[in-house]
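Sample entry follows:

_____
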Amino acid sequence: MKKNALAGRLSNAPRVAAKPMAFDRFANADRIIEGEAEANRGSLSRELPSSTITPPLGGPLTITADVIEGKFRDWCIANNYSPGSVIVVQLSSVKASPFNPRHFYRKDSISQLALNLSTQPQQQAILVTPDFEKLGTYFVHDGGRRVRALRELQKTDVKAIVVDVPQGRESYKLGYDLNTQQETQTVFDNAVVWKRMIDNGEYETQQALADDLGIERTSVSATLAIGDLPEEMIERMLDRVDLFGMNTAYAVSKYFRARGVTAANRLITRIIDEQLSVRQVKEIVSNSEAGSRLPSRKKYLNLVDFKLGGTHVGAMKTYGDDQLSITLKNLPRELRDVLQSRFHDIVKEESQKVEDTRED
């Protein structure tokens, strides 16, 4: 499937009417930016050492009551910020939004942009929204690539426009729709971010997420299955998004569950080297699944038996280099629920450690 297949499917799917707040506020900000940013473009004042904000040279502060309100209005007044103005903020004060629909940023793309920015100044301001819980810092709403490229160049400042887009489900939906229209959103971004939002309780069920985005629940389920792949494997497919659309990536995830990491990596290599079609990949996966149903048993490497009150209730087995199997039965319901919760917490905690290590 071509790389824009998911975007096409999403754009053709029935949409659930979005709550007006975030979109209306973004439209208001956009209207202000169109009218005022042009006047301020390129006219950035000197940096103030005591602040993370460098005010624009655009005359006195003007607050339009029917456009901004609440915390954002208070913030504008406190920081003498005129909505729509381009300002300079310290790069260290800018951080990724937990509701950013993008998760993956290709290193070669960032390096190419950094090379461009090294020869000419930043032309387009990023969009940020204040973190009202930690004043003086900002969430990136649009411009994640530019921020990463400037950091690669070890720059200290970034041009920005501050907008009123509250963090949360609505800001995610807004960014998701914009990225989908621009065909920059990938199934791999969706896989990781959707899984995180469900794990964090932003959406209680897959159906709730599907309803909010106006897509089929089966699409959500298939996408989340892709999110179970190791991130290194996902990044390999990201390098060839022309070959790894929704269906092919999902087929790889099924193969991974059936055959493990090594076999799945070999399949990815074969898809790239032989330019396999979706149909060919599905045939390979189907043949693998048929073979796995043959009456054969894998030899485990380690075995731990579990007993409850002297009665055997299950076992834990390890296979190969990367497989662990735990089987428990005939448990009291209360004990089953406790174990389920603890297993979930352990896996989540260890996954976070791996994530933190990669970032370091």
